[in-house]
Amino acid sequence: MTRNIDKQMIKSHIIEEHPRNEGIPFDLGVIEGIKINKSAVDRRANTLVGRRTVKKEWQAAWLLKAITCMDLTTLSGDDTRSNVVRLCAKARNPVRKDLLIAMGMENQGITTGAVCVYHNLIPFAKQALEGSNIPIAAVSTGFPAGQIELEDKLREIRKSVAAGATEIDIVVSRALVIQSKWEELYHEIKACREACGDAHLKTILATGEIPTFSKVAQASMVAMMAGSDFIKTSTGKEPVNATLPVSLVMLRMIRQYLEMTGYKVGFKPAGGIAKAKDAIAWLILMKEELGDEWLQPNLFRFGASSLLGDIERQLEHFVTGRYSAAHRHPTA
């Protein structure tokens, strides 16, 4: 059965370039002026799952878009070279060819947005992705706790960049956030940005370990002031990871920073996003809060591992009208 999708809805290969965020001088007045109304945030977030939905070919197109914005990730203690090689093969071909043909999307060059691995596995990912344009992201700075000295953090970053990582996901020192040591946090992230060189810096706030929305917002602003290319919700290792309310808070800070500086900063929710319907909720949030430009992998990523399998299962249902067993769509 052929179920064609409007290719203009995907535009997976069209990325509008924008000037990289160079950061701005630290301004404590801006940080201390940030206050968040939790009740208002919760009300706005609830509208995303209660009143908005997409169906049929529109849903399939949004799910394909989600794949192109996905950091396909493996961050397990038992990761091996073979795990990473399989993950990279899936990143190159994230959807079964027969499904793409049925949707008229076989020539659209759909891949995931990046592959994310530990530092020691970068060489295997680099070899497996050779000839593709898929970025390699590496977690760094004592991931996931971040409880190491700054010099060790900077050394990790430099080694990952030298090994071939083009994106570095760092974790902030949560103690600095909890204690409101904003200037110290600024200088730490700025040093990490300098250590990255040409590699893009994605700053993980670990929001599940930050006590209030106001502190999440303040930490987001500090990270952007220091030159972060992306701000990211979670490591995926906290008890609470990405949620729509905390994402909304961070997106409003991205909007405020854009208005202040003209710089566009990307956003990455990570941890706990495992279902296709969840991916659509985040895409709707991005579209409504920041616009269509943020529906591209240079400004939006999902941190995900199991999400891809559920999306592919939903795409098969779109093509055939039947739900298949999950094992027919292995992540890697």
How would you portray this structure in words?
- There is one protein chain.
- By secondary structure, this protein is of the alpha/beta class.
- The chain has one domain: Aldolase class I (TIM Barrel, Alpha-Beta Barrel).
- 45% of the residues lie in helices and 9% in strands.
- It has 13 helices and eight strands.
- Helix 11 links the parallel strand 6 and strand 7.
- Helix 2 crosses helix 11.
- It starts with 27 loop residues before the first helix and ends in a 12-residue tail after the last helix.
Secondary-structure blueprint:
Layout: H1 28-32, H2 38-50, H3 56-68, E1 70-73, H4 81-92, H5 97-102, E2 114-117, H6 122-128, E3 136-139, H7 150-163, E4 167-171, H8 174-178, H9 182-196, E5 200-204, H10 213-225, E6 230-232, H11 244-261, E7 266-268, H12 276-290, E8 302-304, H13 307-320
Parallel strand pairs: 1-2, 1-8, 2-3, 3-4, 4-5, 5-6, 6-7
Helix pairs in contact: 2-11, 3-12, 3-13, 7-9, 9-10, 10-11, 11-12
